[in-house]
């Protein structure tokens, strides 16, 4: 399967601009495209992508969404003088036309469709279209909010028609509500539309009642339109990640799309004069990564807004890097969603509880209006000028953009053992120095009986050293005793200076890990239904997720609602996943776990797998290589009511410590 990334760009889309004075439209400038493209070149990202030419969209394609009357009006702007252009523009809200607008709008749409074709024909895995004019505000017979043709809405119609797709997800992370997309699909259950947007209780543009959380779609499309209004400015990384984990992703996995389209506006990023939000560029890596595990990775990202040129360009680069499979950078800032974000998240979950199994009836109580009295103070507004953010981003990106290791995945395979791992996995044959192995032998002498075990442990230590030095990104180790190996590895990782290790053990433990409650390790054990000794403390948690009490393939809910939020709160610099016998979750779920967790710790992960389990080893290593992107499993089942109740009890306890678990403020 193709694992390449397409990039659609043509500087011809810079050939139109605002000709008269209009402060509202002045921010939508041609340089939005060139500065993004130049930044992509600066990071050597352009050459790593498959360049796709744009083309003009046909009239037939345009009229998949727009009326012929409107098409004729747009067409007629080609020959208008400035006076006439201005007059035509004034018939619409926040719109402007230029003699080249029609041509550029056809290229923007055609470019978007080129990307859809490349992804759905299997020529590439995913891609991004850098286009203008944007699309998500335009409507059947109206230009609106700088948008002329609705690129993403038409792309969805086109994909349905040409490739007979039955379920398409549109994720609109632009800071404005894409009301144009909502109107096209509001009664259509085959297209799930998610949008978050600056709303401020309706006082922010486009000031529509139907942008609020209570609008969930209509007729057959009821439940398939998700609006997450932000009622305060200053939303940041934690708020966006929480929105994905607690609202979008549970529904998205339940919906099980065949294609994901992103209305990718970067006016939701820091420094943008429209959005006034605070998400830093690497946040878009995380958002992108979280969508790459749906649909087997088929993801088309299409530019919408974004008006702070530097912020826009850096965020575009973070998106493209992630599409290419580079390691996801660590998120900066305190990982706790703000009060107002939690209020919005709770409201949208409540509004959608009747339509989606992933939300329990417990979620169904509404908050209605915000009760500002007594709520904690919000962070101060960023009322500073654009150059302040320029300076911030200059230093910030240097800290964030760490190099991706040259080798993606290493494997430690015991002597005399044969297993065929996916192409590209590098077998480790170097054992750690005597000094290093001696330290370990000291601590674990009783357990280290055979030469074989010692050699293979020595190689695991080498692998940890290489992970720390960024020579490799992740690794798999086959082991005769996974608990012991994990304990040794953990000890060594902390010894060589890692600060926080997130350790997940699935199934039986042959030997107890030596854990200190010093905050350097978070230990999560996933057990089945059988009785077992359970110790829970701040940094140790046992999760019962058995096959009897919790049906198969519903594990995604635990992953989204419990494991990832704790991991995001804990901010590990290594992820250790070990599997023992008597596991209660299947191979596909383990692969989903390792795929999603690669968004943390800069992708630094070691998976320790029992040596006898070749199938598991192959699946996990292909997840580590970035090949398997879940979604060959069919729709995710929903856990039983009992199971959800058990989960809820655990969440209530844990969320006092781990703020990213919160999805309500009550
Ligand atoms: C595509 C986009 C914004 C329009 C704002 C009008 N449009 N005030 O971001
Ligand atoms: Zn926007």
Describe this structure in words.
The chain is of the alpha/beta class. The protein has two domains: 5-400, Histone deacetylase domain (Arginase, Chain A); 407-661, Histone deacetylase domain (Arginase, Chain A), CATH 3.40.800.20. The chain has 19 helices and 16 strands. The chain has helices at residues 31-42, 59-62, 68-76, 82-89, 101-120, 151-163, 179-185, 237-255, 281-291, 309-323, 339-352, 386-400, 434-444, 451-468, 482-495, 555-570, 587-597, 614-624, 641-654, and strands at 5-8, 50-52, 126-129, 168-172, 191-198, 225-230, 259-264, 299-303, 407-412, 426-427, 472-479, 501-506, 521-527, 540-544, 574-579, 605-610. The strands form two sheets. Strands 2-1-3-8-7-4-5-6 form an eight-stranded parallel β-sheet, with helices on both faces. Strands 10-9-11-16-15-12-13-14 form an eight-stranded parallel β-sheet, with helices on both faces. α9 packs parallel to α10, α14 (451-468) crosses α15 (482-495) and α16 (555-570) runs parallel beside α17 (587-597). It is globular and about 90 Å long. The protein starts with a strand and ends in a 12-residue tail after the last helix. N-(4-aminobutyl)acetamide binds next to loops.
């Amino acid at each position: 399967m193709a694992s390449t990334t397409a990039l659609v760009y043509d500087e011809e889309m810079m050939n139109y601009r605002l000709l008269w004075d209009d402060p509202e439209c002045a921010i939508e400038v041609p340089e939005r495209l060139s500065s993004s493209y130049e930044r992509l070149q600066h990071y050597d990202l352009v050459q790593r992508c498959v360049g796709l030419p744009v083309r003009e969209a046909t009239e037939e394609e345009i009229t998949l969404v727009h009326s012929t009357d409107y098409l004729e009006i747009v067409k007629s702007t080609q020959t208008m003088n400035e006076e006439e252009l201005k007059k035509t523009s004034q018939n619409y809200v926040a719109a402007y036309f230029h003699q080249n607008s029609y041509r550029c709008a056809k290229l923007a749409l055609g470019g978007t469709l080129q990307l859809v074709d490349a992804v759905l024909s299997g020529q590439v895995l995913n891609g991004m279209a850098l286009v203008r004019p944007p699309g998500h505000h335009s409507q059947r017979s109206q230009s609106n909010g700088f948008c002329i043709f609705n690129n993403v809405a038409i792309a969805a119609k086109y994909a349905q028609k040409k490739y007979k797709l039955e379920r398409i997800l549109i994720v609109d992370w632009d800071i404005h509500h894409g009301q144009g997309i909502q109107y096209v699909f509001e009664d259509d259950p085959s297209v799930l539309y998610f949008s978050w947007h600056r709303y401020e209780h309706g006082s922010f543009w486009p000031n529509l009642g139907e942008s609020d959380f209570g609008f969930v779609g209509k007729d057959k499309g009821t439940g398939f339109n998700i609006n997450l209004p932000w009622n305060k400015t200053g939303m940041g990384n934690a708020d966006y990640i929480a929105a994905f984990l607690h609202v979008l992703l549970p529904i998205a996995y339940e919906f099980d799309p065949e294609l994901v389209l992103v209305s990718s506006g970067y006016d939701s990023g820091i420094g943008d004069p429209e959005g006034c939000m605070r998400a830093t560029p690497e946040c878009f890596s995380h958002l992108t990564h979280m969508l790459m595990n749906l649909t087997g990775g088929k993801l088309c990202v299409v530019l919408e807004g974004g008006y702070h040129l530097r912020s826009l360009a850096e965020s575009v680069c973070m998106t493209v890097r992630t599409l290419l499979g580079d390691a996801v950078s660590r998120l900066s800032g305190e990982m706790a969603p703000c009060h107002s974000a939690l209020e919005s998240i709770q409201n949208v979950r409540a509004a959608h509880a009747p339509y989606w199994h992933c939300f329990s009836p417990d979620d169904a109580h509404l908050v209605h209006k915000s009760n500002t009295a007594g709520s904690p103070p919000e962070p101060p507004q960023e009322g500073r000028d654009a150059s302040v953010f320029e300076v911030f981003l200059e230093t910030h990106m240097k800290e964030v953009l760490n190099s991706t290791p040259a080798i993606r995945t290493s494997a430690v395979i015991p002597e005399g053992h044969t297993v065929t791992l996916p192409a590209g996995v590098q077998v480790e044959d170097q054992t750690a120095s005597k000094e290093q192995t001696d330290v370990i032998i000291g601590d674990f002498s009783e357990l280290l009986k055979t030469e074989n075990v010692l050699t293979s442990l020595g190689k695991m230590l080498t692998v940890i050293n290489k992970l720390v030095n960024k020579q490799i990104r992740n690794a798999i180790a086959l082991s005769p005793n996974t608990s012991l190996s994990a304990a040794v590895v953990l000890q060594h990782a902390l010894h060589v200076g890692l600060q926080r290790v997130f350790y997940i053990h699935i199934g039986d433990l042959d030997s107890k890990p030596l854990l200190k409650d010093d905050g350097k390790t978070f230990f999560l054990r996933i057990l089945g239904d059988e009785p077992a000794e359970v110790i829970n403390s701040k940094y140790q948690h046992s999760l019962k997720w058995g096959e009897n009490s919790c049906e198969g393939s519903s594990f995604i809910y635990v992953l989204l609602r419990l494991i990832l939020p704790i991991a995001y709160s804990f901010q590990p610099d290594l992820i250790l996943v070990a599997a023992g016998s008597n596991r209660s979750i299947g191979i596909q779920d383990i692969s989903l776990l390792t795929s999603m967790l690669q968004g943390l710790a800069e992708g630094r992960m070691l998976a320790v797998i029992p040596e006898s389990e070749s199938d598991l080893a192959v699946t996990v290593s292909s997840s580590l290589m970035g090949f398997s992107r879940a979604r060959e499993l069919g729709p995710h089942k929903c856990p039983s009511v009992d199971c959800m109740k058990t989960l809820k009890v655990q969440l209530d306890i844990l969320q006092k410590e781990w703020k990213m678990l919160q999805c309500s403020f009550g």
